[in-house]
Amino acid sequence: MIFDSILKNIERHITLSEAEKADFCSLLEVIQVKKKEYLIHQEEICTHEAYINKGCFRTFFVDREEVEHTFYFGIEDWWISDIYSRTFKVPSQYKIMALEDAEVFLISDNALEAFLLRVPKMEYFYRKLFQHSMAVYQLRLLQLHQHTAEERYRNFRQKYPEFDRRIPQKYIASFLGLTPEFFNTVRTRVLKSW
């Protein structure tokens, strides 16, 4: 079934009945996103939660000097959205771009809220999802401020070994808070000692 992966993702935390699974799946929209296309544009209000069934995405923003800053990567079996924009119904400060051809399952905020009222145990699932996201975000901020460039790259490679093959180095550099040139130096040093 097309929705097996998202249902397995949810069932890591809760058990849904067959009727609840069917109800939830009926709310999902399947979309194809081509490489370099956007799931969300900067200044657009985010109205969906997205589950990545296939592909890889990058969440980033562009500052006043037109420099891109990568905030988040997402791959298969991960969720991606602009939580701030969705929560406060304000224009997104981020862009979410596909780094590969991708397939995403979208659920609108309205459909999700209605489902959460019908199936309260889904609140637990989303609380766990957001707790995990917040914990990862806090760790990332700590590492940006307390770890050397080499330590950040080592941690990145250990935690996400497949990203080096799938994500262009300039985006990894941006995620780590480094210029592409300095990242090349750091990457060379780390790989020699690996």
UniProtKB/TrEMBL annotation:
Name the UniProt record assigns to this protein: Crp/Fnr family transcriptional regulator
Organism placement in taxonomy: Bacteria, Pseudomonadati, Bacteroidota, Sphingobacteriia, Sphingobacteriales
